[in-house]
Give the backbone structure.
Amino acid sequence: MPVTGLSPAAIALNRFGLGAKPSDAAPTDPKRWLTGQFDRFDTRPADFAALPDAGAMVKAYREQQQAMRQAARLAAPQAPDMPSAKPTRSADQIAARQDFAQDVQALYRQAIQARTQSALQTAAPFVERMVHFWSNHFCISADNPQTSAFAGAFERDAIRPHVLGRFEDMLLAVEHHPAMLIYLNQIQSIGPNSLAAQRAARRDPGKARGLNENLGREIMELHTLGVRSGYTQTDVTEFARALTGWSVGAQGPQDDGNAGDFAFRPNLHEPGPRTILGKVYTQAGEDQAKAVLADFARAPATATHIATKLARHFAGDNPPPPLVQRLAVSFSRNKGDLPALYRTLIDSPEPWAPAPLKFKTPWEWTISVLRGLGRTEIGQIQMAGVQSQLGQPVWKPGSPAGWDDVAASWAAPDALLRRVEFAQRLVAPLGDTLDARTIGPRLVPASLSAATTEQIGRAESPGSALALLLVSPDFLRR
Amino acid sequence: MIDRRSFLSVSAMGAGAMLVAPRMVLATVPTERRFVFIIQRGAADGLNIVVPYADPAYARLRGALAIDPAGATKLDGTFALHPSLAETARMYSERQALFVHAVASPYRDRSHFDGQNVLETGGRQPYQLKDGWLNRLVGMMPKAKDEAIALAATVPMALRGAAQVTSYAPSSLPTPSDDLLLRVGQLYAADPQLHPLWSAALEAKGLAEGAAAKQDPASLGKLTASFLVKPNGPRIAMIETGGWDTHSGQQGRLAAQLKALDTLLGSLRDNLGPAWSQTAVLIATEFGRTAAANGTGGTDHGTGSVAMLVGGAIRGGRIMADWPGLGASALYEGRDLKPTASMDSLIAGLAGETFGIDPAHVSHTLFGVTDAMPGLAMT
């Protein structure tokens, strides 16, 4: 690593924040500049607020499908002796399905534009970065229309309101959110001894209905305690039983709830007490899993798990153990109060090390590039497509573990080439409206390396100079 | 009742073959052999890919998820191949496909991410090793131009490490000007991390000129083949596939996944041309899925699964399984297919035989043990 010693101002703007803008004055008191943002964060920016109601969209589609199936049944000749025949979809049903998928894609893209806009305009770039951090920690992956529809709402409604609140409240909001309940199959999970299972067994004894442990496992492994922290398969299964009944509204023909709202369905809930990590939970209904979640949120393993990820995000791929330890203590002592945790981070020496500590992910790099060019409006740039091209499609990590936060995942030959291609495309229309020689030192105050300065100065055109600045080692790292 | 220890289903691989000592050849010329590793991320359901239809417990455990042997390709008296795998079935009939069942890496804890890390690093524990076994294998190869490529925008764990590898994925972004490429090269010249990445990127770009630039399975097969057939191109490739985590809606999803995989394999074969006869492809997943269907039309995280080996260099037309059975007492922890074969041993044997390197030596370098499954590839 070439040591291009970063100044504290450059670290505050780029490592803690989302990247400097040409108009940013270098903060004179970097730590106060960061903590001052806690009062300036906009929980619900206008573009996020303006997103169409995904719940209404999903509900309307389900009702339409229901009506079509009904019509098809009435029109079809009765064939009671063929119960297993799969009903073929009519042309209308297929068309409706395609329309819905298109609407969902449009909503997904609009939500990504809103996310980008917020990152370009925010008065609190450090807090905005923490939104991205938590959104990736508690990630959903928009791999099907039902999850994609709620992806933007998930970040807006479950993450943003709690980014300056308590971890436990964010955890509860996340696990109650339809995006998560659909993504990790919780809405299909049925207690094997629940009322619904008993009724179904009487109706159709051959068909097994039961647990899906996906959400339960990932809550323990990824959201709270962390893998290999001492829980067993039995704990996972017991927690999955406690979670049965957690569902969303508007699931069936008689269900008039909103598809975007949490719904507890007592009929699906596995009755009886549960024993998880040696503790017995006797609560009834929804409160049972809530009580378990509250204990998970306060568990020492969770504090360590969160501290490790936070330290990795700010102090390097192999986070320094003293920082992890300090953050874990802060997390536990302040009962998961997040601003207190961020203050501990900001007051620690490790994240202020002058050598670059992190290779930017495609999302971080793109946002810092757009901010660096002084853009305040995303305009015609389709961020969904750009991020797919650069290898990190937004809200689509493809697994509940979220995107990796280590350089080895992002520093790769082809990925690098794509950043160069994107930088070139982005600066093409700018001509000589921006001079890399003046904005370079503003974006990385008192820290731009001599080699980069030299290459920018020798470039064949203003556009080429800008592109080089954006893909320079100084700009690929933070 | 099946003979629980029907070790091999076809006599082509008799005891004699097991006794042949692996040849101690350390190739000193760039090899003609090709090795492709296709990882199935998400825990692919081996029991519905190579289906133990004759196991009396199978249909009961799987219920509506059970694959009907009538619609599948019967491989022998015990196993059948999922109906989506038509090209793979053809390979099997031409002795170019071998299935090793009830196989697992040393990992036992059912976390995708940890399981994939063990599968890719070759460690005994997650995150114990910092580099991947495929990268260590590249390090054992005679030095040619560049030996390995990942068909992905980034380098997967199995290929990370000291040996120089490259990655390539089709892009629809405009090509930067030569001048910019040159200047970026100068900009990275003194950067120890970025300089080698950039050199590899430009090299891959040069190799890929004119290759199909689409991501569908057929094009991906064609693109991979286009690298592997070049005289000075890589001889080892890795392809990532995802979407195998079928907790629900398994029947349709798995059928679509396997169709895509089958298309990819067929395309690899067709586009490799004569080089197919020199090729070994390994398709493996981090662990299997529960023996019983769950309550939501899917299966949950399990243990043992199946590994598929295809290619002209494979001694195919066989199934290798020390079949543990699916009876309640035979299941691992009462829920999963019990592993009776070692993935590490399989990889060491296959890689050693493919490249003519002593499998025990390969096993030691890749996995720190000396245990290599014999008789998988033509030597």
In short: Chain A touches chain B through 61 residues (CB under 8 Å).
